[in-house]
């Protein structure tokens, strides 16, 4: 394009020697032609002439820059209260008390086997507490934001069998553990890039990590157990059968991720330094400073800070003169020489542009984190109810996407391994158990209106009670069991509860086939939580 522009100017210059009008028409025609033939975003002249980024391989770029980006992300998350608070809110909304499994074992007629599902969930709860599974969910999400992801490695823990817990241990490994020196063809026939081994289809087959990065699973990995990887010199090969990467790809073919904070790092660093400078300036401005301008003497010479009598000083108990430069007491009344001026130092910081600038930068950073400005900056001073509600709904949609990353990359692979270990070491049951993951939900923004809207959706039969419970982060089956127990206890005491709507008795819903708040239809409209007990006893 630059050569074409140079040729155009040369031809126009030659024409201008003979006919300036012809040269002008030639230049205008070529400008129109250039506008037709190219994108405006690809122009190489004007103010953006130097904006020519290098469009290289995503993996090569990530390998070159990710460690610096990671170090900056970790530091700003530790030092900046804004980023630290934002990440805390992300984890609180995405993970909260944990993304929990809901077993979906069914009978031949399609009904859920309630007792069997409850038994498996209780076993998983015992294992999750022993392995700190839900704490690791929050930690994995933090590493996605700071590092771009992490490695989930599992290994056997046979010592847990004595406790009646599924003998499956696990640990999270930072991406720093990858041995980036492992590259090229491998003995397995695969190829490796920065410690990530991929098969012929480009799918990760193993990860090569440094031994010192491994924790509890080191003995098993080094050959002192029955499972694990194969040691290759200074690095250890962890196959996909014992390790997966928890991350979310942002580009096709991306193998080595970068911090999710990378788009806001420089923005937040500039903001943090600017705020630090303003705080220092404000502290200096808050210090009480006084300047005293002395009059000129009769000969034109200044008094040089030594007036007679001593300015504001008086004398101490020993009769020595106290200079005003040394002491200013409370409630003092001093005589000053004629013409003396007393001025107070003024430093009006921060200025009037401080607030708008902070708000503008915070809005940009909030977009990068997928949060509303109000939540990110904890500033609800200028928001209306409708705008805040819309912002919260959009923000929650982003949280759902992060929940899906944890469900697919962390929970699902670990569940499959856990079920296999459970079948091999504890129950002898099936090694594949269908499951759905119950992610944390959110409370109502407007309780009354939202409850009425939920009731209308139920009446219109466009949503189920199970789906409503999932939206609110509640276990539908557990809610039904609690309602059943409450009804039984109330009936035993002769105080049977009666659901009400708008202050009046609630009649049974003939369409649902059950009173509101009592036993209700299942997810597919055919499940009843009042299934005969003898059916479950046959499991």
Describe this structure in words.
By secondary structure, the protein is α+β, with helices and mostly antiparallel strands. The protein has four domains: 2-48; 67-101 and 260-285 and 350-442; 102-259, no CATH class; 452-539, no CATH class. The protein has 15 helices and 15 strands. The strands form five sheets. The chain has a six-stranded antiparallel sheet, covered by helices on one side. A three-stranded antiparallel sheet has the order 3-2-10. A two-stranded antiparallel ribbon has the order 1-13. A hairpin with a 5-residue loop joins strand 4 (184-185) and strand 5 (191-193). The longest helix is centred in the C-terminal third of the chain and has 41 residues, at 385-425. It is extended and about 100 Å long. The protein starts with a helix and ends with a helix. Residues 223-232, 299-305, 307-312 and 502-539 have low confidence and may be disordered.
Topology record:
Elements: H1 2-18, H2 20-37, H3 58-79, H4 81-94, E1 100-103, H5 114-131, H6 133-147, E2 149-156, E3 168-174, E4 184-185, E5 191-193, E6 196-198, E7 204-209, H7 218-224, E8 230-232, E9 235-239, E10 243-247, H8 265-286, E11 290-293, E12 341-344, H9 354-369, H10 373-377, H11 385-425, E13 435-438, H12 447-460, H13 465-471, H14 476-492, E14 500-501, E15 504-505, H15 533-537
Antiparallel strand pairs: 1-13, 2-3, 2-10, 4-5, 5-6, 6-7, 7-9, 8-9, 11-12, 14-15
Helix pairs in contact: 1-2, 3-4, 4-6
């Amino acid at each position: 394009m630059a050569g074409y522009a140079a040729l155009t100017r040369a031809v126009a210059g030659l024409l201008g020697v003979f006919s300036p009008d012809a040269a002008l028409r030639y230049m205008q025609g070529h400008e129109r032609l250039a506008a037709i033939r190219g994108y405006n975003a690809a122009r190489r002249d004007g103010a953006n002439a130097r904006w020519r980024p290098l469009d290289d391989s995503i993996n090569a770029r990530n390998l070159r820059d990710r460690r610096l980006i990671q170090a900056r992300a970790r530091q700003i998350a530790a030092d900046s209260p804004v980023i630290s608070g934002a990440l805390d809110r992300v984890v609180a909304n995405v993970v909260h008390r944990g993304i929990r499994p809901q077993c979906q074992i069914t009978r031949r007629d399609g009904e859920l086997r309630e007792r069997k599902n409850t038994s498996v969930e209780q076993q998983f709860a015992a294992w999750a507490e022993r392995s700190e599974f839900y704490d690791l969910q929050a930690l994995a999400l933090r590493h996605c934001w700071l590092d771009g992801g992490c490695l989930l490695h599992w290994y056997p823990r046979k010592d847990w069998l004595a406790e009646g817990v599924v003998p499956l241990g696990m640990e999270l490994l930072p991406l720093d553990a990858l041995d980036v020196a492992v590259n090229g063809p491998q003995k397995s026939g695969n190829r490796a890039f920065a410690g990530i081994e991929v098969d012929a289809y480009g799918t990760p087959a193993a990860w090569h990590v440094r031994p010192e990065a491994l924790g509890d699973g080191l003995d098993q990995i080094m050959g002192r157990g029955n499972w694990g990887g194969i040691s290759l010199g200074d690095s250890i090969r962890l196959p996909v059968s014992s390790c997966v990467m928890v991350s979310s790809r942002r580009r096709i073919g991306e193998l080595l991720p970068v911090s999710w904070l990378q788009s806001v790092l420089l923005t937040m660093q500039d903001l943090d330094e600017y705020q630090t400078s303003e705080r220092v300036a404000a502290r200096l401005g808050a210090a009480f400073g006084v300047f005293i301008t002395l009059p000129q003497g009769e000969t034109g010479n200044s008094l040089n800070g030594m007036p007679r009598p001593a300015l504001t000083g008086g004398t101490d108990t020993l009769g020595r003169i106290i200079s005003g430069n040394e002491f200013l007491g409370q409630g003092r009344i001093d005589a000053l020489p004629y013409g003396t001026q007393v001025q107070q130092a003024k430093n009006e910081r921060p200025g009037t542009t401080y607030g708008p600038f902070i708000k503008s930068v915070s809005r940009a950073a909030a977009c990068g984190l997928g949060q509303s400005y109000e939540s990110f900056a904890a500033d609800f001073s200028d928001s209306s109810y409708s705008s805040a509600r819309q912002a919260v709904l959009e923000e929650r949609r982003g949280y759902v996407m992060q929940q899906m990353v944890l469900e697919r990359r962390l929970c699902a692979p670990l569940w499959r391994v856990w079920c296999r270990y459970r079948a091999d070491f504890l129950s002898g049951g099936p090694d594949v158990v269908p499951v759905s993951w119950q992610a944390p939900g959110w409370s109502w923004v407007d309780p009354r209106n939202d409850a009425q809207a939920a009731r209308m959706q139920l009446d219109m039969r466009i949503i189920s009670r199970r789906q409503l419970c999932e939206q609110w982060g509640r276990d539908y089956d557990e809610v039904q069991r609690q309602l059943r127990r409450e009804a039984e206890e109330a009936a035993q005491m002769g105080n049977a509860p009666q659901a009400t709507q708008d202050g009046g008795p609630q009649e049974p819903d003939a369409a649902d086939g059950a009173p509101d708040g009592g036993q209700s239809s299942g997810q597919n409209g055919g499940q009843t939580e009042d299934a005969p007990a003898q059916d479950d006893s046959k499991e």
